[in-house]
Specification:
It is built from twelve helices and nine strands. It has 339 residues and is an alpha+beta fold. Strand 6 (239-246) and strand 7 (249-258) form a beta hairpin. Helix 2 packs antiparallel against helix 4 (46-83). Bound molecules: phenylalanine (PHE). Phenylalanine binds next to strand 8 and strand 9. It catalyses: tRNA(Phe) + L-phenylalanine + ATP = L-phenylalanyl-tRNA(Phe) + AMP + diphosphate + H(+). Residues 110-314 form the Aminoacyl-transfer RNA synthetases class-II family profile domain. It is found in: Cytoplasm.
């Protein structure tokens, strides 16, 4: 019985069969149980001999079953591991990566240029106070220049900033002139109550620039803007300054770059003049300086405000500003950047 049992156990090639064998050999109706149950009918001399013999066989068989179970479990594990092998030499599947929006690429590029020129990049709130957006920029209440910028008011004193110029006042207030000149740019979204069309959006971007030191001149402004224009639009660009008006600069200028959309001849894009307006600028008004606690007798400088949307439209031939904000993938994918 024992030899046959051991043979069967070793031949069992899965857990189910092994369990069947266990039940057959050691179960309630199995031969060993039967022998043990019969002990009571044996004589006093035979009983201990038969009993210990039967128990020994029972023990041997049951440990053989345990051993075989371990072997089978091990085999199952091996099989599973072999099946689940990962081939680490397979080339990975490329993950789809996004790319910065073309407006952000334009702004990033300008930031890099200005950082290289020693400017710092500062941020300011898009929900701005009337105080900073207007008062500090020399536009008091009832000043007609408020009509230049149709404003989204939130409360009487709180509004969506109409330009990034309030960051001029914010940085003037903070700057410690004993540590050197103030040179900053401040890019960000601005808001105006405009009806959206191909050239107007109620929300667009500006990039403010401000340089304040002891001997800053309009020549510095022109030189700086020329660097910007040529960096963005190509080395052969010329710029031209036209007198203009802003309450926070005196004198104020508007800046055109030589037209390149139509080979310099002057087309519709350039209003048939050969020039196209790209930004507003000027020498910072003494009132702006003194309101921010800077002495206009000692310090002065220039400020400019340019439109990254406008820049990107000209540079990439986008003829509808709304394209930037509709997130049509066919549009966005044209500006996929190599990563
Ligand atoms: N803030 C002006 C605008 O939004 C632009 C500007 C900035 C003009 C700085 C002069 C100096 O139109």
């Amino acid at each position: 019985l024992k030899d046959q049992g051991l043979q069967d156990i070793q031949a069992a090639d899965n857990q189910q069969k092994l369990n069947d064998i266990r039940v057959k050999l050691l179960g309630k109706k199995g031969p060993i149980t039967e022998v043990l149950r019969g002990l009571k009918d044996l004589s006093n001399e035979e009983r201990p001999q038969v009993g210990s013999f039967a128990n020994k066989i029972k023990g041997d068989l049951s440990s053989a079953i345990d051993d075989q179970l371990k072997v089978l479990d091990q085999k199952t594990l091996q099989r599973r591991l072999a099946h689940e092998t990962i081939d680490v030499t397979l080339p990975g599947r490329p993950a789809p990566v996004g790319t910065p929006h073309i407006l952000n690429q334009t702004i990033d590029d300008l930031e890099e240029l200005f950082i290289g020129l020693g400017y710092e990049v500062i941020d300011g709130p898009e929900v701005e106070t009337d105080h900073y957006n207007f008062e500090m920029m020399n536009i008091p209440r009832n000043h007609p220049a408020r009509d230049m910028q149709d404003t989204f008011y939130i409360t009487h004193d709180l509004l969506m900033r109409t330009h990034t110029s309030p960051n001029q006042a914010r940085s003037l207030e903070k700057h410690d002139f004993s540590k050197g000149p103030l040179k900053m740019i401040s890019p960000g979204r601005v808001y105006r109550r405009d009806n959206d069309d191909a050239t107007h959006s109620h929300q667009f971007n500006q990039l403010e620039g401000l340089v304040i030191d002891k001997h800053v001149t309009m020549a510095d402004l022109k030189g700086t803007l020329e660097v910007v224009a040529r960096h963005v639009f190509g080395e052969e660009r010329e710029i031209r300054l036209r007198p203009s008006y802003f309450p926070f600069t005196e004198p104020s200028i508007e800046v055109d770059i030589s037209c390149f959309a139509c080979g310099g001849k002057g087309c519709r894009v350039c209003k048939y003049t050969g020039w196209i307006e790209v930004l507003g600028a000027g020498m910072v008004h003494p009132n702006v300086l003194s309101r921010a606690g800077v002495d206009p007798q000692v310090y002065g400088g220039f400020a400019f405000g340019l439109g990254p949307d406008r820049f990107a439209m000209l540079k990439y031939g986008v003829n509808d500003i709304r394209e930037f904000y509709q997130n049509d993938l066919r549009f966005l994918h044209q500006f996929q950047r190599e990563v």
